[in-house]
Amino acid sequence: MAQRSKRARQAGGVPPLALPRRSQARRRDRRGRGLRGPLMPPALPGALSRSQRFDEHVRAAMARLSRTWHKQLAGVEVAVEQVPPSDAARWEDSAPLARAFPAAAGLPARIVLYRAPIEARAQPGRDLGILVLDVLVEEVAQLLGRDPQDIDPGYGD
């Protein structure tokens, strides 16, 4: 008790360590190189990373297709990977944008979209969401054995 600072005595006998501290995430570090807080509020679209934005495009495209084809797509899993595996199929002359795997041996049907090739193929003026939708439509059409125009009438526009 005799070692308490002058401030602690002035604050009514409460030691300085018992006072509430500010959040460590909002303060700068000791040398002044850290951020004071998040650059952008989490609710704004700019706060998302590129992979999170890509995932949102995939969710939106799958939701659009599920409105019409919900029974046929009920057991289909959709996944996103960064890059395709290095062992390309014989018929692939460049990096694939996606692959569809039909249901087999107790596994559900799967569609795997490859983020890096799709983002590389997207033109700066063209919306990435449209390209994601077109790629997903092609893979769903392959799984269901239909024409992409049947799956989505706006395909390729």
Q: Percent helix among the residues? A: 25-40%
Oligomer category: single chain
- Which fold name fills CATH's third level, the topology of the domain at 48-84 and 94-151? Zincin-like
- The assigned CATH architecture of the domain at 48-84 and 94-151 is 2-Layer Sandwich
**Beta-sheet strand percentage?**
5-15%
Alpha plus pi helix count: 5
Can you walk me through this structure?
The chain has 157 residues and is an alpha+beta fold. The protein has a domain at 48-84 and 94-151: Zincin-like. Helices cover 34% and strands 9% of the residues. It has helices spanning 6-10, 50-69, 115-121, 128-144, 148-151; strands at 77-81, 98-101, 110-114. The chain has a three-stranded mixed β-sheet. A hairpin with an 8-residue loop joins strand 2 and strand 3. Helix 2 crosses helix 4 (128-144). The chain is elongated, with a radius of gyration of 26 Å. The mean pLDDT is 80.
In short:
The chain is an alpha+beta fold and 157 residues long. Helix content is 34%, strand content 9%.
What features would you highlight for this structure?
3 strands; single chain; Zincin-like; 157 residues; alpha+beta; 5 helices; three-stranded mixed beta sheet
SSE diagram, text form:
Layout: H1 6-10, H2 50-69, E1 77-81, E2 98-101, E3 110-114, H3 115-121, H4 128-144, H5 148-151
Parallel strand pairs: 1-3
Antiparallel strand pairs: 2-3
Helix pairs in contact: 2-4
